[in-house]
Write a structure and sequence with these properties.
This protein is α/β, with parallel strands linked by helices. Helices cover 33% and strands 15% of the residues. It is built from 13 helices and twelve strands.
């Protein structure tokens, strides 16, 4: 069992500790997806605070897949200058830089959709239309091209967002994906988009470029046992360098099915992941929480809320008794932690997070 401040090697690159900043929505980019000072400062401050790996927010790979206001863009050459600045800043601060590749799919809000949101199948609930086969290949190309742009900008790697009910997760879902072509049907078909994205990035960016994947084990129509199979398959194929499991709550207990009553984290730490490092996220608020995850078999952790509250969470966790600041906190507190006004307003929309909300 590893300790929190022991090194971890990912794709031949040595991380100084087991702390990775989770990809967090922060609404701080310009309308056109270019980087702002607020987004730069928020991320680089976490690298300066000891996070050995730093993920951007879920960054937009395609004009068809915008998920939220102020989303960082990866789909256009105009984004390259800001991405290069960010990669340079994270490197100077000592962190591995990872851009998260994201397409919202059916979860694209109507005001951002180009005509209509797109999805694996027609979904009246989301006012989304099914992608044609050719369009699926186009979106795969968007993921691949975005990864190439990140590599040119100097990022160490990318993380493919296959979680939380966004486009790739929608393809993985048997209830959402009703296709009858090569991208539907059994789990192998429903996994094809994810696998083609991974393969495309590998072929175009090479073996030295870090490729991670984020999955979630439940919600939005995905099934736990199928996500176990997907996790094992993409690790067994040795095409990814780490797996990021977003568990919602690392201490959650499975409520039904084959693993009812078992800890959700155990469903993934018990798998044979062929030596691929496993990271976990979900309600990690203290040194005790963080070390517990490693003791359960995870290789690294991805704090979210704790990283918002403490840019130096990894350093604070050198104190075995450290617990994150209790909520609510003031706007002034968050500004000191280098959240910009748009990010602070967003956190104020979370019940009980900001005192004067």
């Amino acid at each position: 069992m590893a300790e929190l401040n022991t090194p971890l090697t990912i794709a031949g690159k040595v991380l100084s500790n087991r702390f990775s900043l989770a990809a967090l929505t922060n609404l701080q980019s310009n309308v056109d997806g270019t980087l702002t000072d607020d987004e730069y400062n928020w991320l680089v401050y976490r690298a300066e605070g000891g996070f050995a790996m730093v993920h951007t927010c879920a960054a937009q790979v395609s004009e068809t897949g915008k998920g939220f206001d102020g989303q960082l863009g990866l789909y256009n050459e105009q984004h390259l200058e800001g991405l290069t600045r960010l990669a340079d800043g994270l490197r100077t601060a000592g962190a591995m830089s990872i851009a998260q590749l994201h397409h919202a799919g059916m979860r694209t809000p109507p005001q951002f959709a180009i005509g209509q949101a797109v999805a694996p199948s027609d979904l009246e609930k989301y006012q989304a239309r099914a992608l044609t086969n050719a369009e699926v290949w186009d979106e795969i190309e968007c993921f691949t091209s975005a990864a190439e742009r990140c590599q040119r900008a100097g990022f160490d790697g990318v993380e493919v967002h296959g979680a939380h009910g966004y486009l790739i997760a929608q393809f993985l879902s048997a209830s959402i994906n009703q296709r009858s072509d090569e991208f539907g049907g059994d789990l192998q078909g429903r996994s094809k988009m994810l696998n083609e994205v991974i393969n495309g990035i590998r072929e175009r960016c090479g073996e030295d470029f870090v490729v991670g994947v984020r999955l979630s084990p439940e919600r939005f129509g995905v099934e736990l046992t199928e996500m176990q199979q997907v996790a094992q398959q993409i690790c067994r194929d040795h095409r990814i360098d780490y797996l990021d499991m977003s568990l919602w709550d690392v201490k959650a207990v499975v409520s039904s099915g084959e693993y009812e009553g078992q800890l959700l984290i155990d469903c993934f730490t018990s798998l044979d992941l062929s030596g691929v490092p496993l990271g976990v996220a979900g309600k990690i608020y203290s040194t005790e929480d963080a070390q517990w995850c490693l003791d359960k078999g995870a290789d690294f952790i991805l704090p979210g809320r704790a990283a918002i509250l403490h840019h130096d969470f990894p350093l604070r966790c050198k104190d075995k008794n450290f617990v994150s600041e209790s909520l609510p906190v003031t706007r002034e507190y968050l500004a000191i932690e280098k959240l910009g006004p748009a990010f602070i307003d967003y956190m104020a929309s979370w019940e009980g997070f900001v005192a004067d909300a």
